[in-house]
Amino acid sequence: MMSEAKFTPGPWGWFGTAGGCPEIYLATNHSGRRYVMGFQRWGLNGAQPSFQPEGRGMVKAKDLLQFEVGDQSIVGLDAAQKDTSVYRFQIRGIAAPDAHLIAAAPELYEALRMAAKDLHTAAHFLPDTGLALLETVKKAQAALAKARGEA
What we know:
By secondary structure, the protein is an alpha+beta fold. It contains three helices and seven strands; from the N terminus they run E-E-E-E-E-E-H-E-H-H. It is globular and about 60 Å long.
């Protein structure tokens, strides 16, 4: 049984401004322009992404970090620094559904590419559902083209 997706529904796009006070963010128009990911300063030279993990308020990535070493339930840099089981701070992930989706994008792309190819082949052998399958293939191919920056 598949669990329900918790990431922000699409479509997603990049928005912002390059003038005056530059800002770039990933957002959707679903339920108003809802942020998926933005960026905030972290120290003097770096920036960190920020997410809306529960659909309200942006949370800095440092407060959502998951670490390779130590208690796997620890989330956030402050909590990790207080827990002696986390003795190295190599990051294994960010505890936000949208961050999980972004990290899975290459695998999702490849799975969709393979499924579209197989559905296209199957459509020619299934006269009752062939047209519906070809419509699904068309949508998959459009999504793949968008991922390649061609749409």
